[in-house]
Amino acid sequence: MIKQNCLFCNVANGSMDSATIFENSEFKVVLDPYPAAKGHTLIIPKEHIENIYELDTESASRLFALATHIAKVLKSIYNCDGLNILQNNGEAAGQTVFHFHMHLIPRYNNDNVKIKWETIKIEKEELDAIAKEIASRL
């Protein structure tokens, strides 16, 4: 399904111009027009999928296989020191376009890209309880 007023539906299905790197029946890969670094790439499903909670595991598998291939290509072209794979779900997590998309951001030592959070203190007993709760639902 394509959502008419969705920015990434329009990009993924060719209604809006983009710097396209790759395209198949399921995904479109484009350069981010507002990049954090040279080569900053977006992988966008052509079907409107709002977030990871709506993404089926088979599509996720193909998406991550594509991301792995693109990451290796970016590394070979830009000789980057690292690479962030970033994917936000929900406003609280920083999602601003509510169509699933994955960022691949080439990184360099001493670049100005900041993706950082402050850690919280969790005691071992609480960590174990959290792990047990999550594991019980898998």
From TrEMBL:
- Could you identify this protein by its name? HIT family protein
- Positions of short motif Histidine triad motif: 99-103
Q: Which GO terms describe its molecular function?
A: catalytic activity
Task: Please indicate which superkingdom the organism of origin belongs to.
Answer: Bacteria
Q: Which residues does the Swiss-Prot or TrEMBL record annotate as the active site?
A: H101
User: One GO biological process from the UniProt record?
Assistant: nucleotide metabolic process
The HIT domain is annotated at 7-114
Pfam families in alphabetical order: HIT
